[in-house]
Every structure is written in C-alpha cells, then in structure tokens.
Design brief:
The chain contains 12 helices and 15 strands. The protein is an alpha/beta fold and 354 residues long. The protein folds into 2 domains: 242 residues, TIM Barrel; 66 residues, no CATH class. The strands form 3 sheets. The chain has a 9-stranded mixed beta sheet with strand order 7-8-6-5-4-3-2-1-9, with helices on both faces. The structure holds S-adenosylmethionine (SAM) and iron/sulfur cluster. Iron/sulfur cluster binds next to loops.
Length: 354
C-alpha cells in the first residue's frame, strides 16, 4: 500500500498552480498537524505493520513545515515503516534550507523532489516562482551534501518563453547537478489561477516537447512515463509507479484522496473543515469495473507499466491488434501491451475503448 500525505501551505502562489494550497493559513499549521495525525492513527490502526511500501509527502509546500511537525507525524508512522522502500518529500528551493534538509534526512526520508520549473530567472519570474535559479542550484547541492541519493527536479515546458536555447541551457545545468530524476510537465491553464484566462502564456509545441525528451535521453534521463525520466532503474519513483500499477493508496490531509478496495475516499478539501473532521471523508465513490478498466488502460499506456490484455473485451482486443499491426503498441510475453510513444497514450486509449 502507498501513503500520500498532503501539506496545504505555500509561501506564495505560482501563476499556474491550482493545487490545494494556501498562503494565508500558516497560523493553522500546528492544529493541522494534530488533525493529520488523528487521521493517520485512524487509517493505520487496523493495518499490518509492514503494509506501507512507499510514502509521499506532497503539497502545497512541505518545506513550509519544520522538524517538530514532522516528528509528530513520524512518531505515528515509524512502527509502520519496517518494509518501506521509499519516502519522498517535496520542497521549494526558497524554504529547503541546509538545516531543514538535514532534519528531513535524519527522519529517514530518502528521496527529495524540488519544484524548480526552470533554471532561467526570467522564466521563473514569469511563472510567479519565489526563488532564483541560484537558490534552486544551492538547494539541490545541499540535498546531495546532506546524503540524499535520490533527487528529483520538476520542470515546466510549453510556456511562451521556451525555445531550444532556453531548454538547452536548463539541460546543461541539470546535467551538471546531482539529480537522478526529472518530472517534466506541460504547462496547463487551470481555473482559479492567474494564468487561466491568458491563453498566450502557453504555447503547445509537440516538436519542442519531443526535442526536450530527446535531449533528456541524450543526457541520460530515460522516459518511463509521459512526464517522468530517471537516470537509473533505482531512481524511478516507486510511489508513482505504484499509482500507475493501480496499487491501493491511503490519502491523508486536506483534499487528499485514497483508493482502497475499489472505493475512492475523498478527504475534506477546505483546511478548516479538515481540521474539524479529519476522520470522516467528505465523500466516497464506488468504482465500477468499467471505471477501473479505463484507468488501467490510461495509466498503463502512459507509462512503462503497460496493460494486461485480460482486462479487455474481445472487441477491444481487436482494436489492440490493429494498433499492434500499425506499430503503435508492442506486446511482451503475449500478455501485456505497451505504448511505443507515451505521448500518444490518450489517443490510443480512446481508440481501444471507443
Ligand atoms: C506541489 S508542487 C512541488 C513542490 C513545491 N510546491 C514547489 O512548487 O516547489 C508540484 C509540481 O506540479 C507542477 N505543476 C503544478 N501546476 C502545474 C500546471 N498548471 N502546469 C504544469 N505543471 C504544474 C509543478 O512542476 C510543481 O513543481
Ligand atoms: S507550484 Fe508549488 S509552490 Fe507554487 S503554488 Fe503550487 S504548490 Fe505552491
């Protein structure tokens, strides 16, 4: 089982981001952690101690919280971490100080994911980031110094400022840093953000995206999911692979979602509501066999996980055979099929399930 923990605080709101995060609720941090701990105890109490395979502490910005908050969480979690392979925490370069990184490493966190977006100061300002490229470089170097072996950088492409020169300059810096994973996201214009009604900030350019992916491979980052690239087999995110393999997960914190026994469990999104009601879900959703099939096909085709052909009907398998004939998918061991180009995954899924 996977465990996701949500931290809904940020120091500033980026122009593109619609995540469940707030800049004016820092005063609720202590209360929030108390409620989050109550939910953790509630969710874990009847589970075997060795059940948690991976933990992902995401946000918002987990580096807005200090050691004392995480100590409260880990006091509860530690007995359940006997079999845990990966614990990731997200961090923003503006708040991931050397001492914070040391504290997180000391708790047993073994993977860190920095929201960097770019190493170009003009692009960082355009995206509304509250750090410079130099701060991101220092944070990454500090993480390595502290002992983190697995370091991810999120980057954003498809912005109006992107061109080959800018991407190449970012890639030169990436190549020189101790990063073993890149998550590269196409900019999306989300409702409720500064960018939402500014369609000119986004320039979708499939050739530029393919160029970026090709250059990432050239410098040693291999694509194993539509947005994810790893330098080695061991650098792949085990937590995210778990989602794509459709493993069960617990979601703890405001707006976090769990998926257990074919049911999706939605926590209260509003931070105050969550603080008051951490052990009742806002709502739950029973997944149908059809829902599960669609998700398995979509997630499987977007990643190296692939799709088990047994989940499909005879009619759908005929479509799969057509795609195999045209070279768009490949079978392994005659039982699972894989997308040749992850960028075409949604199109292929639509064709198979039409
Ligand atoms: C929770 S944040 C990472 C940690 C920290 N909050 C930070 O930003 O440094 C998750 C990532 O999602 C990506 N993201 C969020 N909204 C996006 C959007 N509209 N388009 C593309 N990427 C987005 C960014 O790359 C961001 O780093
Ligand atoms: S991208 Fe990260 S720092 Fe920026 S608003 Fe979203 S969660 Fe907060």
């Amino acid at each position: 089982m996977l465990l996701y923990i949500h931290i809904p605080f940020c120091d500033s709101k980026c122009h593109y981001c619609a995540f469940n995060s707030y800049t004016s609720l820092h005063y609720l941090r202590d209360k929030y952690i108390k409620s989050l701990c109550r939910q953790l105890i509630f969710e874990l109490k009847n589970l075997p101690k060795d059940i948690i395979k991976t933990v992902f502490i995401g946000g918002g910005t987990p580096s807005t919280l200090s050691l004392k908050h995480y100590e409260e969480i880990f006091d509860i979690l530690n007995p359940y971490l006997t079999n845990t392979e990966e614990i990731t925490i997200e961090a923003n370069p503006n708040s991931a100080t050397l001492s914070w990184l040391e504290d997180m490493y000391g708790l047993g966190i073994n993977r860190i994911s920095f929201g960097v977006q770019s190493f170009d100061d003009e692009k960082l300002e355009f995206l509304g980031r509250n750090h410079t490229a130099k701060m991101a470089i220092t944070a990454i170097q500090n993480a390595k110094k502290v002992g983190f072996e697995h370091i991810n950088c999120d980057i954003i492409y498809d912005t109006k400022l992107d061109n080959k020169m800018l991407l190449n300059s970012d890639l030169d810096i990436i190549r020189s840093l101790p990063i073993d994973h890149i998550s590269a996201y196409s900019l999306t214009l989300e409702e409720g953000t500064k960018f939402f009604d500014k369609s000119n900030v986004r320039v979708e350019d499939i050739d530029m995206a393919n160029y970026l992916f090709h250059r990432l491979e050239e410098i040693g980052f291999y694509q194993y999911e539509i947005s994810n690239f790893a330098r080695t087999e061991n650098a792949k995110s085990k937590h995210n692979l778990g989602y794509w393999k459709y493993e069960e997960y617990l979601g703890v914190g405001a707006g976090a979602v769990g998926c257990i026994g074919g049911k999706r469990l939605y926590n209260h999104k509003d931070v105050n509501m969550y603080i008051e009601n951490p052990t009742t879900y806002d709502y739950t959703e029973e997944l149908t066999t059809e829902d599960i099939k669609v998700e398995k096909v979509l997630l499987g085709l977007r990643s190296e996980v692939g799709v088990d052909k047994n989940v499909l009907s005879d009619k759908e398998l005929i479509q799969v055979n057509n795609l195999e004939q045209s070279g768009k998918i490949k079978f392994k061991n005659n039982s699972r099929f894989y997308s040749v180009d992850f960028m075409l995954a949604d199109e292929l899924a639509l064709y198979i399930l039409e």
